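Marked as duplicate of an earlier ticket. Keeping the data here for the record.
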Amino acid sequence: MGGKTPQSDCLIKSKQRGGLGLPDLEAYHKAVIPAKIYEWAHPRNDTQWVRIEANFFTTPLHVAPWLGRGPNITTHNSELHPMIPHTLQTWHKIRRDQYIAPHPSPLYPLTDNPAFLPDSNTVALQSFPKQTHTLTLGDVLNDKGIIPLEDLVPNTESSGMLRLRHSQIKHFVHSDPILLQGHRNPMLFEAQCSQHTLRRGLILL
């Protein structure tokens, strides 16, 4: 090494190639990030470490992975739990580079989205279909754009509040045209995260 501090590529390079053959800790770390996101994505997950990390978020933990990198989605105080912002930063790089959950995801939330409505975590959206915990882009979009209200809530008399919320959703999505891409079919990892039952074990990417 000539007395110089060894570089990381020398440490992890195989011995046959002149390195030391040490484990690539960064690669291991990136490999476990999707497993952590999978745990985050299930709102009924009562694992203690998940409950602890959820207390540091300004949004519900299960929606945070699907938001972008905008404000108000990380922590109340990142200095109290510095791993959370790092996890999100690494996750957004992985989801883009590995194409396992490119933005915008069909799981991109409308409920509990600080960029949408301040009170959208209330009952205001509860009459829309498929809403168990979160109303998402995948619920309100098809290949033509925003699904008409009469198709979203069939056989239901649309109230003034429903019409208002539908109009607000339409305005919000069209204000950022990239969100219209959220009508795509979920990727394999996204489909696993959207299942109501948390299944620990092998995660397919």
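See parent ticket for discussion. The chain has a mean pLDDT of 79.
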